[in-house]
């Protein structure tokens, strides 16, 4: 019997970013938190134009990550879709409306975390 190895958190983060592009997410970044935080390895941060766009991005990312063995432990923000958070323990995906993203400024808050280059996002 062959056992499939679960994707690393880095690979899952890159895939999440690429899945977000397929729903036209805006300003997608991946932050490597391994040296600056102990609760998570990677953040994927992206934006949608309006609530229905945020919903479409989050649902697609969740569906596609589930297909490859990554199921979220926790999801928040599905009441109004201003900021949806998918928590995979080693990976957290944040999908914002632009105004909420500017207000919470996660990129600035975690400014010491290096950005991960993702082929296809450049």
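^ structure tokens above, recovered residues below v
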């Amino acid at each position: 019997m062959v056992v499939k190895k679960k994707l690393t958190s880095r690979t899952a983060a890159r895939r999440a970013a690429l899945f977000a592009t397929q729903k036209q997410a805006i300003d997608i970044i991946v932050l490597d938190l391994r040296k600056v935080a102990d609760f998570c390895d990677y953040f994927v941060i992206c934006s949608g134009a309006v609530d229905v766009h945020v919903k479409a991005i989050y649902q697609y990312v969740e569906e596609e990550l589930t297909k490859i063995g990554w199921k979220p432990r926790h999801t928040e923000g599905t009441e109004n879709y201003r900021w949806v958070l998918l928590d995979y323990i080693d990976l957290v995906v944040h999908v914002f409306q632009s105004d909420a993203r500017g207000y919470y400024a996660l990129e600035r808050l975690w400014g010491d975390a290096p950005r991960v280059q993702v082929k296809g996002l450049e």
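Confidence is low (pLDDT under 50) at residues 1-5.
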